[in-house]
Each structure stands twice: as structure tokens, then as C-alpha cells.
Design a protein that fits this description.
The structure holds 2 protein chains of 2 kinds.
Chain A lengths: L4 H27 L1 E8 L10 H15 L7 E8 L4 H13 L5 E4 L3 H13 L4 E3 L16 E3 L4 H14 L4 E7 L2 H16 L3 E8 L8 H10 L3 E5 L2 H13 L7 E4 L4 H7 L1 H4 L3 E4 L7 H10 L10 H20 L1 H6 L1 H10 L2 E3 L3 E5 L5 E2 L2 E6 L12 E7 L1 H4 L14
Parallel strand pairs in A: 1-2, 1-3, 3-4, 4-5, 6-7, 6-8, 8-9
Antiparallel strand pairs in A: 10-14, 11-12, 12-13, 14-15
Helix pairs in contact in A: 2-12, 3-4, 5-6, 8-9, 12-14
Chain B lengths: L1 H29 L6 H19 L3 H22 L9 H23 L17 E2 L4 E2 L1 H23 L1 H11 L1 H6 L4 H23 L9 H16 L4 H21 L7 H12 L9
Antiparallel strand pairs in B: 1-2
Helix pairs in contact in B: 1-5, 1-8, 1-9, 1-10, 2-3, 2-4, 2-8, 2-9, 3-8, 5-6, 9-10, 9-11
Classes of the chains: A alpha/beta, B mainly alpha.
């Protein structure tokens, strides 16, 4: 076999070309790909409120954003932090360093939220937090890489707590989950009660997670003779508390303030036990045409369950992020997390979950909040028909005033 | 202040006693550390829910049927998998049953979600709480203590005072010899496992109206229950029952004095017991 010079030269020229082709191709694709990581509780107490439903809602947002038509690829990955802050920050680091994740969405559980909050700042990435509740994310611990999307402990205290105090519940006893979220919720509610002239008679902190029997704590609450027993916990803990409070007849003389309860919790409790409870959310599927439209889009992929405010928040956050990406271009959006957040704050938000809104300088997403009362079994027309709207708290009152948060990003 | 907490501690102690009783029976007879016990407790509660919602069978029926159904599931597990491990180290049984527990929990979580299902106490046990003078105790909780106590005593009597129990005890000491007398030891072992699993399921049905019926309800209990079994002495039936009730009391009192430590106090006691009496309070060294 003989090789002539021309063929040899041609082959030599072709080698780098061939070798280069897939490489350039992959890079071109990567350059136009945004990677969203949904980091949430897939297996623990908060799973039903966020979990797989959050992933479904983010995927829906990707579809609704229309970025595919502009040639932007979006990849969605998911992770289970099992409500462990150390695991949450490990996954976040891996995602950012190794897997090229550009934005982390959801991050349930305040302790995990605070952990990832630190990671995204260090790596100049982005966290759009929907399920974590602690108002510290936009308060003393605020940073330029996080937006707190759906709700927070201050908003819950203000809406549910405020309504309770106004209705005459001026003495309180707290049953509090012993971690960042419970502490923040108790602190914010205590602040509000004090401001409105009420008093806190005592509180008891229960281990999280892993407490199933709350009867000892409920008994202590009963003995305190406080008019209101505030539950500064969430998920299965709150469900167990409400169930056992009914069992012990606590609600005969005292009022139960469920400071954080969402639609999936009510679904699990059943209306027989949950009826009459007051609670606050920023999204309820049956609020208006737009909220119903969102629910109808995603419920098929969620086994017929309606989206909770946490999941709807993931939708809204992902949608707004992708709008900003489309606006500033993929390359620029990937260059720096803080810069993208600045753009997101500059753009008004508008989506089916929360309607029109905005993002404040301290990272607080603003929209109205709603005080609901849980319907009686007779009032409910079917599954997921659970709430009566009692009061709409307007945007300007729903969240902590920016000056009170102590966020260093805010120039006074 | 302390008296009501002691009563509530007894209620939790009743669950610890029932669960650790099943574990002790299984460990005593099979030498298997049944880590799937929590999952079987959870299955007991879920089967009660299914019986009510899918077949219209109320609480009292579930109290009998659910342990039978979950016990039958135990028979399948024992025959297909666990029986292959009797000749091996304890560790293999522990790993197998732990894996099974994770799979069972995962299947239930995927099917039913994590926040749980509602299950109401039977009508006869609802209504005004019983006035004990120093506190109001819901009727249902009183029933749990009584039921658990009766079941524990009955199990102890069967094992210590009947011919069947004598065979069982003899088989644990020297299985080939008992078999030589014409007793079908493998079948007896299978049924013992099923009985232990049935006890877990019974505890699950008793727990369903109090706690949220959710896939994690067993794993919340099981670690504590293992500590109870270790403190009582592995395989000691009376030891696990007494320790179960006693540790429920200790936990209840901790919830008054220093609630944050209520999840840890049992493990502190376990550490002390292991140092001072490695075979447990009632175990034979």
C-alpha cells in the first residue's frame, strides 16, 4: 500500500479538523445551555409540599418561558438534601463546581437554605429560595446572590399572628421546632405580639426531625393557660400537633395558631380535623383564573395534587430567571450570579402564580399574601377545595419593611 | 406537673414495649436483628387505612386483620430471604432487613406521599377525655396503654407458660435436638417471625389514630426501640417490655425538664447501660 504526499497532507489536515468538530459542537451547545438545579426535600417531612412537585413546576416554567424558541437549551437536574444542611451544601458545591449548574431553586428547610445561601455567595452563583422560610435570608444574612421568593417567617407572623392578636388572642404559648426555621418563626411572631400589646407566656422546643408524639408539649401549652397556642413548626410536625391537639381537647379553651400550614398539609389532615384553622399563604390554586390555569397545567404530572405555594414559587422563580437570561443572553447570565440577580431585580415580575410583582434590593420578592380559613367538610365541594379567603394583605404590608431587616445590601 | 407527663410517658412506653417485644421475640428465636420492624409497624397502620378506605372495614376489624395481613407478608419475607441467613453472622440479617425497610418505605412514599393520611379513632373511643383528677386523658390513649399491656402479658405467658413456648425456647437452645423429637422447627421459626411482625403491625394499627399515618412513622420509632431492646437485654422478652414502659416515662419527664434533649435521653441511658452492664438490664451475659 502506497500513500502519496497529497493524501498524507490532506489526512494530516483533516485530523485536527475532525477532532475539533465534536469538541466545538459540544462547546457551542454548552454555551447555549442553562442548567437549573432543584435542590429540595425528596424523602422527608416536607416532600409533599415541595419535592417532586417543585421539579414539575420548574419544568413547566421552562416550557412556558419560551426560551427554546430563542435557541436556549435548559437542563433541569434535581437533588435530595434530606433536610441535612451539610448534605445541602455538598450537593450545591458539586453542582456548581463540577456539573455547571447555573441556578439553584427551592432549597426547602431553613437550615439547608442558609447553608446553600453561603455557598452561592462564595461561588458567585444564584439561589432562588421558595420553600425555606427564615426571614434572615433577606435580613441580617442577606447577600447579592439570593432571592427569597415565596414567603417568609415575618410574613407568616404578620398575617396569621396579627389576625390572631387582633381577634383577642393576646397571650401566647409556642410549640417550636428546634432549628433555624422554628426559632425564626417564634422570634418574628413574638416581635409582632409585643408590638400589638400581647404577651408570650412561654415556649417549648421539640427536637427536629423525629418527634412524633406532641402530647407532652400540648399539655404544657394547656397548663400555660395562654389564649393562643402558636405552632412554630411545619409539615408532618404540624399535622401531628393539630391531630393531637384535637384529641386532647386543647381547642375547646384555647386557639391554635398554625403559623405555617400549606394546602398539602390540609389535604393530609382531612377537613374534619383541619376545619376552622386560620393560615396564610401567598398562592392558593383556586384564587383566580391565573392560579387555576397554573394548577391545571401541572396537576396531571403531580398525580392529581394541586400545586402548593412552595411549588408555585419554584415555577414563578424559574420563569423570571429565564426571562432575565433571555434578556441578557446566556453567556452573560452564566458569567456571574450576582450580575444576573441584579438584572432580575431590575425587571418587574409577572406570572400565573403571584400575578404582577417585583424584587426588592435586599432580595425579597414582593407580592400580596392571603389569610385563609379552612372550610368545613360541608362547605368543601371536593378534593383540594379547602380554603375561604378571609383577607388579602396588600404588597406593601405583606413583608417586613426593608429598613427593619438590617440587610447590609440596603443603602440607607 | 409531673403526674400528667408520667401518664403520657406510659402511652409512648406502650408503643416502645409492643415494638421491642416483637423485636425481642424475633431476636431471641431467630437470632436476626429485624431492622424492617419499623417498616412493618408502618405497614400495619397503612393496611388499617386501606381496609377502612378501600374495603370499608373499620378500626376493630383492622386490629385483627392488619396484623394477619402484614404477618403473612412476614412469612413470605422469611421464607424467601431471611431464612437463608440463619447460618451467617448477625450483620447479614441486619443489612438485609435494613435494605428491605428502605425499599418498603420508598414504595409507600412514592405511592402515598410523605405528609400522611388521616385515620380517625373509632367512635367508641372518641368523645370527652377521661378525667383522671390531675389531667384529662383521651379515651383512645387509655385504650392503647391497656391493650399494649394485655398483649405484652399474653405474649410473655405464651412463651413462658405454654407447651408451644417451651418448644420455641428449646429450639433456640438446640434446634437439631428439638427437630429430632419430631417438631417442625423451620415452620415454627417462620411462624415466630410472622408473630413478631404481626406484633409490629398491631402497634401500627394502635398508632394510626394518634400519629399521622405516613411512611416515615416507623423509622422515627425504630432507632429508639432498638435502644430499648439493647438496654433491656437483647432477646429478653420481659426485659424489653419493662424497659419499654420505663423509658417512655423517662422520655416524658425529660420533655418537662429539658425538652430539647428528649430525643437523646434514651441514647444516653443506653450508653451508660452498655458500659455498666453490657448484656443489658435483664439480659444474660
Amino acid at each position: 500500500m502506497t500513500i502519496d504526499r497529497r493524501a498524507l497532507l490532506g489526512g494530516a489536515a483533516a485530523v485536527p479538523l475532525l477532532a475539533g468538530l465534536p469538541f466545538n459542537g459540544a462547546r457551542a451547545q454548552a454555551n447555549n445551555t442553562i442548567k437549573i438545579g432543584v435542590l429540595t426535600d425528596m424523602s422527608g417531612t416536607y416532600r409533599d409540599g415541595c419535592g417532586p412537585g417543585s421539579v414539575t413546576c420548574v419544568r413547566q416554567a421552562v416550557q412556558d418561558s419560551g426560551v427554546a424558541a430563542r435557541g436556549i437549551n435548559v437542563e433541569v437536574v434535581q437533588g435530595d438534601h434530606q433536610n441535612k444542611p451539610d448534605l445541602a451544601s455538598t450537593i450545591a458545591r458539586q453542582w456548581i463546581d463540577r456539573d455547571g449548574v447555573n441556578v439553584i431553586i427551592d432549597v426547602a428547610t431553613s437550615s439547608c437554605a442558609l447553608a446553600v445561601h453561603g455557598v452561592v455567595k462564595e461561588k458567585n452563583s444564584i439561589m432562588l429560595n421558595s420553600t425555606g422560610a427564615t426571614a434572615d435570608l433577606t435580613g441580617s444574612a442577606c447577600n447579592p446572590n439570593t432571592i427569597h421568593w415565596t414567603y417568609d417567617t415575618w410574613m407568616l407572623a404578620n398575617s396569621t399572628g396579627g389576625a390572631m392578636v387582633k381577634a383577642g388572642g393576646d397571650t401566647w404559648f409556642f410549640i417550636t421546632a428546634d432549628y433555624a426555621f422554628g426559632h425564626a418563626l417564634e422570634r418574628d411572631t413574638t416581635g409582632l405580639i409585643g408590638k400589638q400589646g400581647g404577651r408570650v407566656l412561654g415556649s417549648v422546643k421539640h427536637p427536629f426531625p423525629g418527634t412524633t408524639d406532641f402530647s407532652s408539649f400540648l399539655l404544657q401549652a394547656q397548663q400555660s393557660r395562654a389564649k393562643v397556642v402558636g405552632l412554630a413548626n411545619a409539615g408532618v410536625d404540624t399535622i401531628n400537633c393539630v391531630k393531637q391537639a384535637a384529641e386532647f381537647g386543647l381547642t375547646r379553651r384555647q386557639k391554635l395558631a398554625v403559623l405555617l400550614m400549606i394546602a398539602s398539609d390540609v389535604h393530609s389532615l382531612g377537613l374534619q380535623t383541619a376545619q376552622g384553622l386560620s393560615l396564610s399563604e401567598t398562592y392558593y390554586w383556586d384564587l383566580n383564573d391565573r392560579t387555576r390555569r397554573l394548577a391545571n397545567k401541572v396537576k396531571g404530572d403531580m398525580g392529581g395534587a394541586m400545586p402548593t405555594m412552595w411549588q408555585a414559587g419554584c415555577y414563578s422563580a424559574a420563569l423570571h430567571y429565564l426571562k432575565a437570561v433571555a434578556d441578557m443572553g446566556v453567556a452573560q447570565a452564566k458569567a456571574g450570579g450576582a450580575e444576573t440577580v441584579v438584572r432580575m431585580k431590575a425587571m418587574p415580575t409577572d406570572d400565573d402564580a403571584f400575578g404582577a410583582g417585583s424584587i426588592r434590593q435586599d432580595g425579597r420578592k414582593l407580592h400580596p399574601s392571603y389569610l385563609f380559613e379552612v372550610k368545613t367538610p360541608a362547605e368543601s365541594k371536593g378534593p383540594w377545595d379547602y380554603y375561604k379567603l378571609v383577607r388579602t394583605v396588600p404588597v406593601e404590608e405583606a413583608f417586613r419593611p426593608i429598613a427593619d431587616g438590617g440587610c447590609p445590601l440596603v443603602r440607607t | 406537673m409531673a403526674a400528667p407527663q408520667i401518664v403520657l410517658g406510659l402511652v409512648n412506653g406502650a408503643f416502645y414495649a409492643l415494638l421491642s417485644l416483637g423485636l425481642a421475640v424475633i431476636f431471641g428465636m431467630l437470632n436476626v436483628i429485624n431492622f424492617a420492624h419499623g417498616a412493618q409497624f408502618m405497614m400495619g397502620a397503612f393496611v388499617a387505612w386501606m381496609l377502612l378506605n378501600w374495603a370499608g372495614i373499620p378500626y376493630w376489624g383492622a386490629l385483627i386483620l392488619s396484623p394477619l395481613i402484614v404477618g403473612a407478608f412476614g412469612v413470605v419475607l422469611e421464607r424467601l430471604m431471611i431464612s437463608r441467613l440463619y447460618k451467617m453472622d448477625h450483620l447479614y440479617g441486619l443489612l438485609l432487613t435494613f435494605g428491605l425497610a428502605l425499599i418498603i418505605e420508598g414504595v409507600f412514599r412514592n405511592t402515598f406521599g410523605s405528609s400522611g393520611l388521616p385515620y380517625s379513632p373509632p367512635a367508641a373511643l372518641t368523645g370527652a377525655p377521661v378525667d383522671l383528677g390531675f389531667m384529662l386523658l383521651p379515651k383512645y390513649r387509655l385504650w392503647v396503654v391497656v391493650a399494649a399491656f394485655v398483649v405484652c402479658i399474653a405474649t410473655w405467658l405464651v412463651i413462658e407458660k405454654t407447651r408451644l413456648g417451651a418448644y420455641l425456647r428449646a429450639a433456640t437452645e438446640n434446634a437439631p435436638l428439638v427437630q429430632a423429637f419430631g417438631v417442625n422447627v423451620p415452620r415454627m421459626v417462620t411462624l415466630t417471625y410472622a408473630a413478631g411482625v404481626g406484633l409490629a403491625a398491631l402497634a401500627g394499627v394502635l398508632a394510626a389514630p394518634i400519629y399521622s399515618v405516613n411512611p416515615a412513622m416507623g423509622s422515627n420509632f425504630i432507632i429508639t426501640v432498638f435502644a430499648v431492646v439493647v438496654i433491656g437485654g437483647m432477646g429478653s422478652i420481659l426485659g424489653s417490655v419493662i424497659t419499654g414502659f420505663a423509658l417512655g416515662l423517662v422520655e416524658g419527664l425529660t420533655r418537662v425538664v429539658y425538652p430539647e434533649a428528649s430525643a437523646t435521653v434514651i441514647f444516653v441511658i443506653m450508653a451508660i447501660v452498655l458500659v455498666a452492664r453490657p448484656a443489658g438490664l435483664f439480659g444474660r451475659a
